[in-house]
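Instructor's aside before we start: the two examples that follow are unrelated to each other. I chose them only because their records fit on one page, so don't look for a connection. First example below.
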Amino acid sequence: MLTSLFTGISGLNANSLALSVVGDNIANANIVGFKSSRANFGDLLSQTLGGASAMQVGRGAMIVDIQKMFTQGTLETTANPLDLAIEGDGFFIVRQLNGPTYYTRAGQFRLDKDGYVVDPNGYRLQAYQMNPDGTITGAIGDIYLAGLMSEPRASNEVKIQVNLDSRQTVPLSAWTPPSGSNLPDSNTYNFSTAITIYDSQGNPHIVYTYFRKTDANQWTAYMVYDRSSDPSNPNYTQVGNFNLIFDENGRLTTDPPTTSFNFDFTPWGASAQDVTFNFTDSTQFGSPNAVVFQTQNGYSSGNLIAVTVDQDGVISGVFTNGQVKKVAQVVLAKFVAAHNLTKVGKNLFLESYGSGNPTYGAPGTVGVGKVFANSLEASNVDLAEEFVRMIAAQRGYQANVRVITTTDNMLNELMNIVR
């Protein structure tokens, strides 16, 4: 009879521990990336009474395992581009400076004072490093964004598509190249346009293109720019000209419709460079002179103004010169037995012998899942389910108390026999 007392005590201990697990789940219901746990019950070693397989009496209950539940949580939208959420089985990898490596599902990342991407604990998010051209090196390290700049690119091609009015006549005044601070006389050309190109150091230079009709179906384009580095003392210079010839349908017959000119940018400290002008698809129709389209392929240097992250975990910088540059790619870890990871608090896990070694991969590969920016993963705690478990633990506790009080009453009755 005394064994029933200890059986009841084991039930009290098991149910109180189960209630602690439920309480922990409920307390963390609003924690980003939190994964709930479940108490798994088992019976204690039983006692055999009479015979090899006759009657077996249990000795009570125990918690054999507290299982971590790594089911997917709901994704919530946020305004921070460095808030990341995983849809899948992977873990973010964060490294403590001069400390261990942790794994987490909580993607609340930000920049620290040194320009590194860190979690709320100050641990640095790990990613595949990238070369300046955006190719992955395969090395895993910290993500550094401070002082990131986009280098300038020198222009080497200009595309200009224009319509030149076939109704216009040849100007009476002869073409006179610009000189010093004087641009060409407006009486010497029919139409003009301007475009900004860049030298090897990213300095902008305005190039003027003047179109002068020279025959019924022929025009000449003159390229002019300022050779002086002093804006208050311009020195306009013609670098060359190019003939555009059209057929009776107003289509360009010049083949090829391109030409190259050499621009001297040495006054700005840059080198001289060749720039190709492409007039493909230009026309001579009976409509007003107009620029249909023009572009060039150079740009100045730029400073970082924004950060973006795509579903492949590629972190890119957006710069003031309009360029987007890949910086790094978030790396995720996957474990064969993730439920055996060691919880260390603060939404962090450590690798354990039971979890196995991690498998590293980029988002979207080797089953680690995808990454979503401007998103956070909510906890996977189901409050309705936790309340049911709470009631079950409470009732189990009460029932075991009854076992103990009933056994006590029976012992009292036994003692009364003596009296």
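Example two begins here.
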Amino acid sequence: MSALHRRVVREVMSVLVSDLRLRWRSLLWWTVAVLALSALVASFYKSIAGENAYEDVFGSLPESLQGLLGGVDLGTPVGYLSTEMYSFFMPAVLLVFAIGRATSSLAGEEEDHTLDLLLAQPVSRTALYLQKVLGVVIGVAILSIAVAIPVIALAEWSELKVPAANMWAATAQLFAFVMFLAMLALAVSAAVGRRSLGMGVAAGLAFVSYLIDGFGKSIEWLEPWRVLTPWYWYDVSAALTDGMPWGSFAVLVAASIVVGALGLVGFNRRNLRA
């Protein structure tokens, strides 16, 4: 490793460690909350396992509404996890954390007039940006894992008997999906210096694309547009059923990298507000 590379690594790691120390309590409480929510959702399945009534109710819903709910049967472990946990509920919970964390990382500090003080230290904008990205990655990864742990731990008791490997595949899909929208929020907010704009773009895309993907499963003219939404590539049902869908995972990761890189370019080129 060259001297330049060692210097960049030291810059990134020093600021990252400091940032994690400041935010560890918040991340701890988020982790506890996600563990509790996941355990609650997993525990409820025991009361409905094998109930045909839920399949009948789900089948009686309009096709468009079934698409919004995940399009699968609540009476099976895979269907229950897809619909009640992974299709919308847990992604929404993690997105609240991820978007808030991403937009506060650079734009939030700039609005609080602390970013210029940090950049006055011997740290480059690129190193600072990468540190903020790593901070978001670590937080989202921990919360994604926290979603899976109670389901796996309670599998025998709750009758949610999904192979652990498939649960981890779904966790990887959840992580990649949330990270894409988090990177979008960070990139927009860092490029313009406005936390609210990053939040609005990421949250707006998450909601609008969810509707397009859900309704597109039953509305013919919307169907071609589904491929442009992150929800289309968030293939958690396939992950829970067959294991890791590497193609969709790669698309989400690649999209995150591209968006993050564009955000870095925008952050490096603009003048920061004092």
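The mean pLDDT is 86.
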